[in-house]
Amino acid sequence: MARQLDAPTTRRTRARTQTGAQILVEALRREGVEILFGHPGGASLPIYDALYDARDIRHILVRHEQVAAHAAVGYARASGRVGVCTATSGPGATNLVTGITDAMMDSIPVVAITGQVPRPVIGNDAFQEADVTGVTMPITKWNHLVMDVGDVAPALQRAFYLARTGRPGPVLVDVPRDVSQASCVPAFLEGVPVPTYRPTLDGAPRQIAAAAELLAAASRPVIYAGGGIISAEASAELTALAERTRIPVTLTLMGKGAMDELHPLCLGMLGMHGSVYANYAINEADVILAVGVRFDDRVTGRLADFAPRARFIHIDIDPAEIGKNKPAHVPIVGDAKRVLAALAAQARAPQIDGWWRQIETWRTRYPYRYRPRDGVISAQYVCEQLQRLTGGEAIVATDVGQHQMWMAQWYRPRGPRAFISSGGLGTMGFGFPAAMGAKFARPDRLVVAVVGDGGFQMTMQDLITAVEHRLAIPIIILNNGALGMVRQWQTFFYGDRRSASMLRNPDFARIAEAFGARGIRVDRPEQVEPALRAALAEERGPVVVDVQCDPEENCLPMIPSGQSVAEMIIDD
Amino acid sequence: MIEGQAATISVLVENSPGVLARVAGLIRRRGVNIHSLSVGPTEDPSISRMTIVVDTPPERTEQFAKQLRKLVEVRRATAIDGAATVDRELALIKVNATPGTRMEIMEIANVFRASVVDLTDRTMTLEVTGKGEKVDAILSLLSKHGIREVARTGQVTLLRGPQAT
Q: How many whole angstroms separate alpha carbon B107 and alpha carbon B95?
């Protein structure tokens, strides 16, 4: 061992004994939890009984545990705080799995609390028993089965600490029913709850100086910024560095809004469905400053052909990301906010007027475009109108598929935590629950869900939750009667053989009405704007806007999977 | 002993439930075979050392070590490639031995400094310690007598010199 670490000391906070469930609720309170999303069941009854007394902690009853996990993610992403979800043992816990995996892939701080069968029957195939810590081992940053009531308080403290520090991520705490019912005098840890876990926050000064040198000497530099900027609250530092050096900024899907996307230095999203100019810029670059990104295959395509002439500066709080997919010439482990601040302080502007002329030529030559057909609604038109009507000031949550990419192209958020989309896992059914979580986090903001007809049907049962809590969320369905992205790949790569990709849909507006929400059906282009205006202005509850879109539209530009910018399909 | 390439990773972990599963799972999900894995307590009983030999090219081992360091229970993970090390493995080998072949087997055992730890009128059990190649070599010499059973501990490794592994 390099050094002997001090064990955290404990303090008896109160002389009186409490049940494990009461201690759990007290732990939530101490972490500042105001809301949690969940669904009760047998093994979590003691926890729910304790929550019944907790008037300061709101519990939102969802109708499926997957929604609880996605809502916790939406809450976390809109607020920057830890999202909390809870479920009972067995099926309740396994229903959280998709949402927890989503949080893992996108590095979102979430704490999941699950009930477990009583200790004496663990491992005996008891009713509603599942090995939840086993199941969630590869999809959590950490998980823990609490086997002693005295461990409830420290386990929750560790869970919140690990979820929000370093590279954030989901943590699961599994609490057997008899642990919740047992009593003890709670002993909370003082100081850092996991002293052995110490993320590196400040970048090495020598590496930062080397990065500044490399940028100053660059002739075609690009900043490639991602979700790490948003996690680290580093938008101001990113913008300051860009403005000081005039280096163009491209954003990943997870990084959307990390910089004001209407800023002239911002080239918007790169990658598979990113803009032509962002992809040309990154691939022609001689120096790339990568911050809070992981060189995902949806960004890079074929790794060997990604930015082949570039030298890479890679900043990340997770040392395992640096050099994982592309070798980093200047690796910097640290918190994006601190490292960018240090870098901006010593960065010098490179001579890149010619580079900017080239980029502006591309930007003018290859804007996002679509070809509306007479009397048919283009999905991109709807996205463009949403951008125009909100000015990029709304928080948007999307589902997954064509509509997600069109929103990523056309919606240009003015700042961070305003574009909430399932990036790494690509979870259909995510958008609407995430919008609910975001609205609970930011009731003061306009929160819009943009979903497809396929994905919405995976979690739309929770419309009743939005109605119950009067969540004024416009839910815009870009309805093309298909699993559009699947259909598009079939069209491009499988001879247009539409295997299991065409949908027979219900009448979404009438379904909304049956739930007690407002429903609007839009069939013609001229109805789009009035319907969107009405939905955005609604304050009483959710509005489902079912927009009948062109079923044949393809999402372009597109760099086919595993290929390079040279193979980009452009609508030109 | 190992087809193709192999690499050694030494990991110090907290001695708590599930740690072995976490470490093994992290390697498993990358589709890499664990050639050998040995676990035991260290000088500090709350810390265990795992020595893992994986069938992976050495250039990937640093990435494995980095991923292992992300596990909260992992205190230290060292990819050992090219450094001067002491590597040892212990094997118990139960071989067919009649009164007529005993002497020849004991001669082999002497060369490898193996000790006889059990003897019957039909079998002999040897204990041998050394690098994996040494164990492989004695096994190959004994094979003509008929090896009935083998138990190997898997490799344990420390760096030579004062530096920590």
A: 14
From the CB of residue A137, how many other CB atoms can be counted at a distance below 10 Å? 19
Give whole-number Cα distances, B125 to A111, B94, B118, B136, B140, in Å.
54, 4, 5, 16, 15
Burial class (CB in 10 A: 0-12, 13-18, 19+), B40: exposed
Both structure tokens of A321: 């990301």
Both structure tokens of A442: 């930011």
Rounded distance between C-alpha atoms, residue A483 and residue A426, angstroms: 14
Test A323 with B22 for CB contact under 8 angstroms: no
| Pair A258, A225: CB distance under 8 Å | yes
d(CA A498, CA A488): 9
pLDDT band with cut points at 50, 70 and 90 for residue A10: low
Hey, what amino acid is at A399?
A: D
Structure tokens given for B1 = 């002993």
DSSP A154-191: HHHHHHHHHHHSSS--EEEEEEEHHHHH-EE--EEE-S
Q: Is the dihedral of CA B51, B52, B57, B59 positive or negative?
A: negative
pLDDT at res. B82:
79
Distance from CA of A141 to the nearest CA of B (A): 7
Residue B83's pLDDT is what?
A: 85
Look at A1 and B164 and tell me if their CB atoms are within 8 Å. Answer: yes
What is the C-alpha to C-alpha distance for residues A345 and A180, in angstroms, rounded to an integer?
Answer: 52
Task: Please report, to the nearest 10 degrees, the dihedral formed by the alpha carbons of residues A398, A402, A403, A408 taken in order.
Answer: 70
- The first and second tokens of residue A16, run together, are 């009186």
* A4: contact with B, CB 8 A cutoff: no
What are the structure tokens assigned to A449, written together? Answer: 């869900």
DSSP readout, B54-88? ESS-GGGHHHHHHHHHTSTTEEEEEEESSS-EEEE
Whether residue A173 is predicted with pLDDT greater than 60 in this model: the reply is: yes
Contact between A137 and B22 using a beta-carbon 8 Å cutoff: yes
A3 in B contact zone (CB under 8 Å) = no
Q: Judge: A137–B44 Cβ closer than 8 Å, yes or no.
A: no
* AA letter at A221: P
* Cβ-based neighbour number of residue A69 at 10 Å: 34
Q: Closest Cα of chain B to A381: distance in Å?
A: 43
Angle between helices A152-164 and A20-30 (to 10 degrees): 30
For A52-83, the pLDDT digits (tens) are 999 999 999 999 999 999 999 999 999 999 99
pTM equals 0.94
Chain A nearest CA to B67, separation (Å): 6
Give the model confidence (pLDDT) of A283-309 as tens digits.
999 999 999 999 999 999 999 999 999
Asked if the Cβ–Cβ distance from A1 to B72 is below 8 Å, we say no
B72: chain A residues, CB-CB within 8 Å: 141-142, 162, 194, 196-197
- Token pair, residue A54, equals 């907790």
As a whole number of angstroms, the distance between CA A286 and CA A288 comes to 7
Instruction: Pick the closest to residue A399 from A478, A471, A462 (CA basis).
Output: A478
Residues comprising chain A, all counted: 572
* Residue A494 clears pLDDT 80, i.e. is over it: yes
Length of chain B measured in residues: 165
Task: Check if the beta carbon of residue A216 is closer than 8 Å to that of residue A348.
Answer: yes
A332-340 mean pLDDT: 98
Check A1 against B26: CB less than 8 A apart. no
